Amino acid sequence: MIMEGFQATPDDGGIAKRLWVKFKNESLCALYTPFVVCLASGTLDSKSFLHCISQDVYFLQAFAHAYELAEDYADDDEDKEAIRVMRKRVLRKLKDQDDLVREWGFELPEASTCDSATVRYTDFLLATAAGKVEGEKGRGKIVTPFEKTRLAAYALSAIAPCMRLYSFLSKEIQAVLVPEESTNIYERWIDCLCSESFEANASRIEDLLDKLSVTLTGEELDVVEKLYHQAMKLELEFIAAQPITQSTITPISQVQEPAGCNLTLFCDFDMTCSAVDSSALLADVAIIAAAKTDLEDCESPYVHISAADLRATWSNLSSKYIEEYEQCIESIRPSETVGRFDYEGLCKALVQLSDFESRANDMVVHSGVLRGLSQEDIKRVGEHLIFQNGCKNVLQEILGHENMHADVHILSYCWSGDLIRSAFSSGALPELNVHSNELPYEGSVTTGDMIKKMESPMDKLQAFNDILKSCENNSKHTTVYVGGSVGDFLCLLNADVGIVIGMSAGLKRLGDQFGVSFVPLFSGLVTKQRELAEGSCSGWTGMSGILYTVSSWDEIHAFILGL
């Protein structure tokens, strides 16, 4: 019924840190590329690895030249020296590249060619370092020290995200290695990127970018952001473009049958797709409508509730729901944690929660707070609803993907299907399949009653199973469920892949008690990739007792569609 959400605010810092935080969700997508998943699992074909690191020479040459130009631009002697030291490190690494690769246990091929993805990044970097930035003056026209400083900052803004990205990825990979069973042949390379010296180099670049950016105008800082973001995207494209010859577990859209991927995606709505709870929006519609009636003294076929009384009623309903919901969750938890996945015990417990949710909806109907709402107002609120970042884009791309036969179904406790449908109609999405409760109307005004279709985890599971029965065919079919509340529990577990986003405290508590494992999706993919290489993985299957957690829709995009 009513959920609560919050979003942490990162500590402030220099521009380099702020930009990394801003675009970090995009960097997470690199983890889901076949190259990184295979690398982390230790199953990556060595030819693919050597092809990737053979491109280092082109990157290092571009870095060295960019540093040379940036040093020339820098006005402060201390800044010049800092850039000079960075350039010397690059030149030293360039000279020692072959020996370094041998230390990792590999031998570089005698000859290599520069990939198109490498060319796109190095051309961008060298053009930026040469002052060829949109809206900027050419290098030969630089006059003042401030102009020089600006161009030095631009050059570093095209380098900084690459260093930070590799530092981040290597640490994420290192975190999923199993020390006591480590047979990953790329561990030395991973350790090198996780080293204190690599981190120190990345931090030095960021610190200098911060220093050079202090004197920049707001317009110039916007240019820094655009360059940083473009460099990040080009580096991600480079990682995604690495050739892979082996079978992989990700992305879903590329690893299914040659005829294409058959995918059914199920999503919860409140706080999964939406950034606000729909019951709070309907409360606002009701209170505003009541306030309007108060002012106009309009006649109504229903007993009028003043805006003040309505606000108090909503507040009481909300407080009572939250209090009793917590009590219900605590009452259905087993006294001791179950040592194994206990689906049957979880189902029995959720029956009690279903009864509670039904009583809570009855209280809302009997209170009269849903009476007299205009259908037009409900749809208008839906059209202006704020979505979770990336959600609509993911759904749109899945439905428009040429290699996937995909359906999307929204399964929601929301009281108004009209609100959900209007929320999705405001974008470029085709009409989605919405399964929720409905508010009946007399004319175009709600009666205060509710057509109850989706009140419990069991109702959602029934809808889930009915949908799958209606789309059964002989080809391979994958189901993905995305949600984060207790109401989604059974569907998450029954789907081939259950993805938890915005996990509620109740879901986590019950999951822990009934033996459900919550595993970061990247870690789960690495395990699956190892199993695939060993011949023990036949694909995704439900009812494993494992749910996969993500922090954003960008990760879901990368997992299903790729970069």
UniProtKB/TrEMBL annotation:
<feature type="domain" description="Thiaminase-2/PQQC">
    <location>
        <begin position="34"/>
        <end position="130"/>
    </location>
</feature>
<dbReference type="Pfam" id="PF03070">
    <property type="entry name" value="TENA_THI-4"/>
</dbReference>
<protein>
    <recommendedName>
        <fullName>Thiaminase-2/PQQC domain-containing protein</fullName>
    </recommendedName>
</protein>
<dbReference type="InterPro" id="IPR016084">
    <property type="entry name" value="Haem_Oase-like_multi-hlx"/>
</dbReference>
<dbReference type="InterPro" id="IPR050967">
    <property type="entry name" value="Thiamine_Salvage_TenA"/>
</dbReference>
<dbReference type="InterPro" id="IPR036412">
    <property type="entry name" value="HAD-like_sf"/>
</dbReference>
<dbReference type="InterPro" id="IPR023214">
    <property type="entry name" value="HAD_sf"/>
</dbReference>
<dbReference type="InterPro" id="IPR004305">
    <property type="entry name" value="Thiaminase-2/PQQC"/>
</dbReference>
